[in-house]
Write a structure and sequence with these properties.
alpha+beta; Alpha-Beta Plaits; four-stranded antiparallel sheet; 4 helices; 6 strands
């Protein structure tokens, strides 16, 4: 773990997470890849049992506002999301590629392909423990595509939770879905 990096888990805080693609390469630059990413996020949300309060998927990074998972930690949940996406985007075997396209693998040593990294190894995690910070982070997430000039209005970007809040639409990732949480009951004495 890098020197001085501290993660604060176990207090029940919300987590504002930012994960970037390796060297800011646009691995999430198509609607198809962003949809794939969101489908994977929903799978992991159910398995790790956490609540997603907001998200946005940009061409080279994503932001996520989430509760602490009941299974694992935010780190293990993000590891699952990142690994599954990488496994589905980068082919396992070397395939013939059309002329003029760049390889998805680097060759090392005796010609064995090494997958190009898709994600930066670490991620940014900010504990959100006030209502004001929750609102601030949600606004930031939903305005991100507008700020970057990808759309004129937040509702035009399909790969964010904005439409869930504004119009009640159910997207690929369920927002504020507490059904995945399980209460822990003590046995009666």
């Amino acid at each position: 773990m890098p020197k001085g990096l501290r993660r604060y888990y176990g207090s029940g805080d919300l987590h504002f997470i930012t994960c970037s693609c390796y060297q800011r390469k646009p691995w999430l630059d198509t609607g198809e890849r962003r949809d794939l990413f969101l489908n994977i996020l929903e799978e992991v949300r159910k398995e790790h049992r956490f609540v997603v309060l907001g998200y946005v998927v940009m061409p080279e990074h994503f932001h996520l506002l989430m509760s602490e998972p009941q299974v694992g930690t935010p780190s293990t949940a993000m590891q699952s999301v990142k690994q599954r996406f990488a496994q589905r985007v980068v082919p396992r075997r070397r395939q013939r590629r059309p002329a003029g396209t760049r390889p998805l693998h680097k060759t090392q040593g005796a010609g064995h392909p090494t997958p190009m990294p898709i994600w930066q190894p670490r991620f940014y995690d900010f504990n959100v423990w006030t209502e004001d910070k929750r609102i601030e982070k949600l606004r930031y997430v939903h305005r991100n595509p507008v700020t970057r000039g990808l759309v004129d209005e937040p509702e035009q970007w399909r790969w964010s939770s904005f439409r869930s809040y504004a119009f009640g639409e159910v997207g690929l990732v369920r927002i504020n879905d507490c059904d995945v949480l399980q209460m822990r009951m003590r046995d009666s004495a």
